[in-house]
Design a protein that fits this description.
Elements: E1 7-10, H1 20-36, E2 39-42, H2 54-67, H3 98-110, E3 114-117, H4 121-133, H5 149-157, E4 163-166, E5 173-177, E6 181-185, E7 193-196, H6 204-214, E8 219-223, H7 230-242, E9 251-255, E10 258-259, H8 275-281, H9 285-293, H10 308-314, E11 325-326, H11 329-342, H12 345-351, H13 353-356, H14 370-381, H15 390-398, H16 406-412, H17 417-429, H18 436-449, H19 454-466, H20 474-481, H21 483-498
Parallel strand pairs: 1-2, 8-9, 10-11
Antiparallel strand pairs: 3-4, 4-7, 5-6
Helix pairs in contact: 1-10, 6-7, 9-11, 14-15, 14-20, 17-18, 17-21, 18-19, 18-20
């Protein structure tokens, strides 16, 4: 469905770490832009000086680049760290657009679409409470909609600082949501609302639609939690069109909630919602995005694992379902594991590098052996759920001694294990160390001499050599570790058993 006129936007606030619900929203916008051949605008909503931070802003840019969400317009070029704006509607940070909002607010006031509201917080609270007691809607009651000059003069003598409110139309607002179908909001449920604070600072309710209008956004795809604000924004758009500021009202599509534990909306405060957590654990961007795409959309009824290119080719906002989607960490991990196995071997070897060569790796940098790593990599690739798992899977190759895991030692080293190990050592000594099959035959033969099947015979050997009862295929591991180190570790285990 090519449509180069499609313009979507992703406009997060730089407050804290990005969370997976935010990433899902970015993904659906980006995928729709790429599917239609349209434009993906990346905009920063940083007007909350108390909560926004430059560190969070940089994290947002870094996260977008890591995820591969290349933007066409935004606060910095996708493939550059220069910081220069990219696109014809710069600047793309709201904190740099304050004069624009001030000018639009003035035009709304002059055009009668907005008015000054002098109500104090105490007065508003009292009237809301009275409305609730009477069983009436408790939104703003329009008290300042039609003040006389005399009333305004009295308020000014009291040094009241007014806010600016937008004047909602006294008629229902109906629109067709791209996800939920036709929706209607009646006037009593959508009262007049503030767009500028008493100190002159513009509110989200003004700056977000104004930016969408000036940047000619055609489709607003956002979370379901913002649905109640849509009729207010539609009314504002119509006022902006009348004033010659906007060209049209965009289409809206409200994406389903992402649910966490206990059927509650996944909050950015939930530990499993942090994007950084997934990066640190070694999720592939492709794996994480594949799973997040399933939170409200599907490629087909029988295919959960697919590439980003496959998603882009098929994605249409009309196929998003309105029902809440549950975030399932286990399924997310399983899909990521599939994507790890899909990597070609060279890409897998490179992807594990940040963990294997990290300063905090459990071995000294000089003890890391690239040749050994590349030899064991094909066997490791089929075992990982996340890339950070690689460290404990291959640590036996680079440590002077295997890890000490008392639970594994106790489980594997039963009565008679010393005799088995001595037999296995003798047979391994004369085995062909260029053949995992030869090493397997040696341990199998040792087991048969002691009345043990292969599974029980190899457990003491595995723990003696790797320190753990589970891990990569044993005989391929022994081949990569080498004869000398393998026999030395078996000797050490025998010494411990007979001490």
């Amino acid at each position: 469905m090519a449509n180069a006129n499609v313009r979507v936007r992703f406009c997060p606030s730089p407050t804290g770490n990005p969370h997976v619900g935010l990433v899902r929203t970015a993904l659906f916008n980006w995928a729709y832009a790429r599917h239609t051949g349209g434009t993906f605008v990346f905009r920063i909503e940083d007007t909350d000086a108390a909560r926004d931070s430059e560190e969070s802003y940089e994290q947002l840019l870094d996260s977008m680049r890591w995820l591969g969400f290349d933007w066409d317009e935004g606060p910095a070029a996708f493939d550059s760290t220069s910081g220069a704006d990219s696109g014809p509607h710069a600047p793309y940070r709201q904190s740099q657009r304050m004069d624009i909002y001030k000018d639009v607010a003035r035009k709304l006031l002059d055009g009668g679409h907005a008015y000054y509201c002098y109500c104090s917080t105490a007065e508003l609270d009292a009237r809301r409470e009275a409305a609730r007691a009477a069983g009436k809607p408790s939104g703003y009651d329009g008290h300042c909609r039609a003040l006389t000059d005399e009333q305004i003069a009295v308020y000014r003598t009291e040094d009241r600082e007014p806010i600016v409110r937008f004047r909602m139309p006294d008629e229902p607002i109906t629109f067709t949501d791209l996800v939920r179908g036709e929706l209607t909001f009646t006037p009593e449920n959508v009262p007049d609302y503030g767009i500028v604070r008493a100190n002159g600072a513009p509110l989200y309710t003004l700056v977000n639609p104004v930016d969408d209008a000036l940047m000619e956004i055609t489709h607003v795809l956002r979370g379901e939690d913002l649905l109640s604000s849509t009729p207010r924004q539609i009314a504002l758009y119509k006022a902006l069109i009348e004033l010659g500021i906007a060209k049209s009202v965009p289409a809206f599509g409200h994406l389903p909630y992402v649910m966490g534990e206990g059927n509650k909306k996944l909050s950015k405060r939930d530990p499993q919602s942090s994007l950084n957590l997934y990066r640190e654990r070694g999720f592939l961007p492709e794996g994480l995005l594949n799973y997040l795409s399933l939170l409200g959309w599907s490629l087909s009824a029988d295919q959960d694992v697919f590439s980003i290119d496959e998603m882009v080719a098929a994605f249409d906002i009309k196929d998003v379902v309105p029902n809440p989607a549950r975030f399932d960490l286990k399924k997310c991990e399983a899909i990521n594991a599939d994507h790890i196995r899909r990597l070609d071997l060279k890409a897998f070897i490179e992807a594990c590098g940040p963990w294997l060569k990290a300063p905090h790796a459990p071995w000294a940098p000089e003890d890391f052996d690239q040749a050994r790593w590349e030899a064991i990599a094909p066997h490791a690739q089929t075992r990982l759920t996340v890339l950070s798992d690689i460290t404990q899977n291959v640590d036996f190759l680079f440590l002077d001694e295997p890890v000490e895991d008392e639970a594994s030692w106790t489980k594997a080293m039963k009565e008679g294990s010393d005799a088995l190990l001595r037999t296995a050592r003798a047979k391994l000594e004369s085995a062909d160390w260029t053949s995992p099959e030869s090493l397997k035959a040696a341990v199998l033969a040792a087991g048969e001499e002691h009345g043990l099947k292969l599974g029980k015979a190899q457990a003491p050997v595995r723990v003696a050599v790797t320190g753990r009862t589970v891990g990569l295929p044993l005989f391929e591991s022994l081949e990569v570790l080498g004869k000398d180190k393998t026999l030395t570790r078996i000797d050490a285990a025998l010494a411990k058993l007979t001490a």
